[in-house]
């Protein structure tokens, strides 16, 4: 008797979640195809996109541990953040530990994590990665997908027993689901946006602030945070209502705003750098979206409970989080 053919799983999106998902499915013995819109980021000099680093807690570490890369990412690359460092208006600081026993979170490079997971996925003989493949459409009942190969312009049609949507917050998989009757969905933008700035390393190549902390400047309706990077710079994220971003139209207004709210951050970022970075950037929006109802027969499964079968669909990562279905990713 011929050996039973492994069921096929298509993972759409090779970001942080899709790469991990591909490894997990490969471990279970499925034939996995991982489709990614972008080219291979390991070959790119600069990867455009959001935040350089991530704060990783035990949940993320558990996922990495399950596919054998926790040590490489966390112990050998991560920067321990043992406490929050609160910056008051008068420039004084106060530390609030995350845990009495010294347990902590880690600052890790987003690109590094993604690259390690891509390489780990490639180690599995039953994983094939298809870069430059943009999902255009899918038939959720039949498990059929159409991609554009962005390198050649060619259309590629394929099918799988299970399709996993890991294509991020503005997921095309979810857009396909929206076309179905009774799939109610709501998206709402919050008034706050965010902008990333940078505190560079000091001239002698050191951290400009104590490194083992997540630095926070809480200011009521807005705040700023900073996470350490491996090159000893800091990624600073300024969160505030778009209305306030809109009032900062000149270098004088910006400096006056910082002088009032974040005076100790001006010398750390540097006046010129602050002005240049702020005015060459645009604040990004934050949205909250929610799936309100899913039609019967959609074959939607939560992560952990799913078994591949014809035309089944699973959604995970930011695709799911923005879908608001559950928090089991
Ligand atoms: C500013 C900011 C700071 C953050 N900080 C933290 C933090 O400190 N800690 C933390 O845990 N989380 C943080 N997050 C959240 C975290 O980044 C996300 O939860 C995580 O990236 C989700 O991973 P994902 O794989 O679902 O989506 P993504 O990382 O967005 O990956 C989606 C992938 O799908 C691909 N894709 C998109 N469309 C298609 C298509 N049509 N066809 C094929 N492929 C496609 C994309 O190219 C991408 O590679 C932060 C988010 C932001 C915006």
Automatic annotation (TrEMBL):
Residue ranges occupied by any FAD-binding domain in the UniProt entry: 8-203
Pfam families: FAD_binding_3 (PF01494)
GO BP: any one term: kynurenine metabolic process
Protein's UniProt keywords contain Ribosomal protein: no
Protein keywords: FAD, Flavoprotein, Monooxygenase, NADP, Oxidoreductase
Keyword Flavoprotein attributed: yes
Cofactor needs: FAD
GO MF: FAD binding; kynurenine 3-monooxygenase activity
Recorded GO CC terms: mitochondrial outer membrane
Cross-referenced InterPro entries: FAD-bd (IPR002938), FAD/NAD-bd_sf (IPR036188)
Name of the protein this chain belongs to: FAD-binding domain-containing protein
